[in-house]
């Protein structure tokens, strides 16, 4: 949990084997994780592929090594959830951004929403 007792998130930047990002959300005692090859969408309306990957232990929240660094970290809040979609806000170092994680038939899409 973050300092305020809210669920934490981290965005890891991986430089190997190919450059990509991992979005990790604290939930149920683990970090639920998605690989986001092109990084988080930068503007409302943009979408990025998000591939679910195995959960990570909470001690991975601040983990870094020569090939992995923390690109952003903070806490997240859920606004709505169905079986196919999670509406959330990431509260990171650079401010707050609202997203929808949408399950497709194969993977997920990470959609940047208007601040609302």
| Average of pLDDT | 94
Radius of gyration: 13 Å
Arrangement of strands in the largest sheet:
1-2-3-4-8-7-6-5
How many structural domains in the coordinates?
Answer: 1
User: Beta fraction of the residues?
Assistant: over 45%
Structural class: mainly beta
What's the quick description here?
This protein has 116 residues and is mainly beta.
Question: How would you characterize the overall build of this protein?
Answer:
By secondary structure, the chain is mainly beta. The chain has one domain (8-112). The chain is built from no helices and eight strands. The protein has strands at 8-14, 20-27, 30-36, 47-56, 68-81, 85-92, 95-103, 108-112. The radius of gyration is 13 Å and the shape is globular.
